[in-house]
Amino acid sequence: MRIFLISDIHGALDRVEKVGDRIASADLVVLAGDLTLKGGRAEAEALLDMVASRNGNIVAVHGNMDREEVNELLDERGYGLHGRGRIVDGVGFFGIGGSNPTPIRTRSEYSEGRIADLLSRGYDSVRDAETKVLVSHAPPKGLCDRTFFFIRAGSTALRDFLKAHGDVRLCLSGHIHEASGTCFEGGVCVVNAGALKSGRYAEIELGENITVQSGRLR
Fold first, then answer.
1. What is the pTM of this model?
2. Contact, 134 vs 162, CB < 8 A?
3. Residue 2's Cα: distance from chain center in Å?
4. If 99 and its partner were Cys, which of 28, 42, 64, 197 is the partner (CB 3.0–4.6 Å)?
5. DSSP state of 90
């Protein structure tokens, strides 16, 4: 499966347009949150329409800068993974949107306890899938989550969940713009796409092995 991963778009539709060919050639497009700049439904609708015009195979979570109405829109369109799961070509995708608490109290934040509950709910819905992929706006604590101030800002609940569920092969995230890249911990590959608003994205080949190619628009 060829996955095209983008996150932290923040309403930059011109950037989406520039990766249109890559979106079209993927087997699945994963949107890992912060779709909007101002947080609202109309802005998210414009983005989703643009992506879907090139590739209708989409799974997504909302980000901490997106309002709850964006999460509701994703569910209405059948893309949403927040506390949910979906089987795509035999692969079980489940997810968590928003983020763990931040110092600036953004629009969609959840306690670590709530994150743990939502992860368990989503996992249960894809438990029987041989291959499982977790889509989270926030990365796990300690993996692809270092800020400019050298603070590890990822979710402890997500980190602990991955440690307890060794059958999750891949964790796709964003949120910490400056922490784009790939990390391996045990049997899981963690990918932070970085911010598409700044031109960053990731392409993943998911098969017997996992390969990740990080990219940046010029």
1. 0.98
2. yes
3. 15
4. 64
5. T
User: Given pLDDT bands bounded at 50, 70 and 90, which one contains residue 76?
Assistant: very high
Task: Single out the residue of 203, 204, 201 nearest to residue 217, CA to CA.
Answer: 201
Q: What percent of the chain has pLDDT over 70?
A: 100
Using DSSP, state whether 13 is helix, strand or coil: helix
Please state, in angstroms and rounded to a whole number, the distance separating the CA atoms of residues 218 and 188.
30
Q: What is the separation of C-alpha 178 from the centre of its chain, rounded to a whole number of angstroms?
A: 15
- Placement of tokens 């992929």 in the chain: 133
Contact in structure between 32 and 26 (CB atoms under 8 Å): no
Helix (H, G, I), strand (E, B) or coil at 52: helix
CB under 8 A, 24+ apart: contacts of 70-73: 70/35, 70/36, 70/39, 70/40, 70/41, 70/44, 71/97, 71/98, 71/108, 72/41, 73/41, 73/44, 73/45, 73/48
Task: Note the pLDDT tens digit of each residue in 190-207.
Answer: 999 999 999 999 999 999
Buried-state track 167-186, b at ≥16 Cβ within 10 A, e below 16: ebbbbbbbbbbebbbbbeee
